[in-house]
Design a protein that fits this description.
Blueprint lengths: L5 H15 L4 H15 L4 E10 L2 E4 L3 E2 L4 H9 L6 H12 L4 E3 H4 L2 H5 L2 H7 L6 E8 L4 E9 L8 H37 L7 E5 L5 E4 L1 H6 L15 H11 L5 E4 L7 E9 L5 E9 L7 H6 L4 H11 L4 H8 L3 H15 L4 H9 L3
Antiparallel strand pairs: 1-2, 1-3, 1-6, 4-5, 5-6, 7-8, 7-11, 9-10, 10-11
Length: 361
């Protein structure tokens, strides 16, 4: 294969051994990048995880053995959108095309040297030539590894490309093994957190990108998902996305979406931290309590929308703290609303409230 020597095959076996010895992404990336740089005579390298979601392709902020964190952040927020190699590599990963790319094959050399991406980003960090590995793990997850040579180093030869293609299956197998291990660990962690709440109508868990990691059959049915749809491709109701984004700001760690008066399902949402990989959002679907009191009768007394909600919940036997939890307000606010309800209806306690408002006119 393109004149590969025994030392090239030894390099590939070393890549396989190092990759398979790792049990986590954090272990794998620095070790693998360091070894790839040596094997392919590169000065620097970087690695990105990619995922395909219903909202489009997403990458994380990446890891580099050479570039500092601030430079990587600049790339993530701006330069990746004008990086022709990233765009092409992601497209090739999903389309199952050859998994190795080199800069000379993607963009004409002169055009590359005159581009904003090269002059404003690559040149200042001494990157002149790139070779990328596209690693497809499944239909919704993959990784991109790029190794770099500075000016003055030769192009990546046919022999180097042949050796790189041999390395791809070993890298992919190692990452797939880590992905599976991580999913099992996360599933156990998820179930531990869900155990006190599994009495709901359905359970769903979202990652920090609001991609569905886990959804039971009831939750899938409630959001109208087609059978067999992968979690990453499930479309979420926009109110749920909005609530999770609010929780992401850190002002609170739980929220509720309620539809009490329309007899639809409500959702209890809790944000929990999952180490370096960011927040997780646990969503419990709950059946709304059917109203005991006709809404038209409540409106007759001039109750506000919030007072109507509280009257329904109080008449169903919920305590002030339970109502507060349901509506994401404080128990003191519930008490104030109840006082207003009592004043408007001319009664003085919950028992009288239910009797008065359910009695025939």
């Amino acid at each position: 294969m393109a004149g590969l020597a025994a030392e090239d095959l030894t390099d590939i076996l070393e890549i396989a051994d190092i990759s398979l010895s790792c049990t986590s992404w954090d272990d794998f990336v620095p070790l693998a990048l360091n070894h790839l740089e040596r094997v392919f005579d590169a000065q620097s390298s970087c690695c990105f995880r990619i995922r395909r979601t219903s909202a489009g392709d997403e990458t994380d902020s990446g890891f580099s053995s050479w570039v500092d964190r601030d430079t990587l952040e600049k790339y993530h927020h701006h330069y990746k959108f004008i990086d022709p190699f990233m765009t092409r590599a992601i497209r090739d990963v999903w389309s199952r095309r050859p998994a190795i790319l080199v800069s000379d094959h993607v963009v004409p050399y002169d055009a590359f040297q005159n581009s904003e991406f090269y002059n404003d980003f690559l040149k200042p960090i001494s990157v002149h030539r790139l070779m990328g590995f596209g690693l497809r793990l499944n239909d919704h997850a993959g990784a991109l590894i790029a190794i770099h040579r500075p000016k003055g180093r030769p192009r990546f030869s046919r022999r180097v490309l042949a050796k790189a293609r041999l390395a791809v299956p070993h890298l992919t197998t190692a990452l797939d093994r880590m992905l599976t291990h991580g999913m099992v660990a996360e599933r156990d962690w998820i179930l531990d957190h869900l155990s006190p709440q599994l009495g709901g109508q359905g359970v769903m868990v979202l990652d920090r990108h609001l991609t569905v990691l886990f959804a039971d059959d009831r939750a899938r049915a409630l959001i109208g998902a087609r059978p067999g749809t992968a979690g990453a491709m499930l479309a979420l109701p926009e109110p749920l996305r909005t609530a999770c984004r609010t929780l992401k700001s850190g002002e609170a760690d739980k929220a509720r979406l309620s539809s009490i008066r329309s007899n639809q399902l409500s959702m209890a949402i809790r944000r929990v931290d999952y180490g370096a990989d960011g927040a997780r959002y646990i969503v419990i679907f709950e059946k709304d309590i059917p109203p005991i009191i006709p809404e038209e009768r409540l409106k007759r007394y001039g109750l506000t929308s919030r007072e109507i909600d509280i009257a329904h919940l109080a008449s169903a036997g919920m305590t002030n703290p339970q109502i507060a939890e349901k509506l994401c307000i404080s128990p003191r606010t519930v008490q104030n609303h109840l006082r207003s309800i009592f004043d408007k209806t001319g009664i003085h306690n919950r028992t009288s409230l239910v009797y008065r408002l359910t009695a025939r006119a």
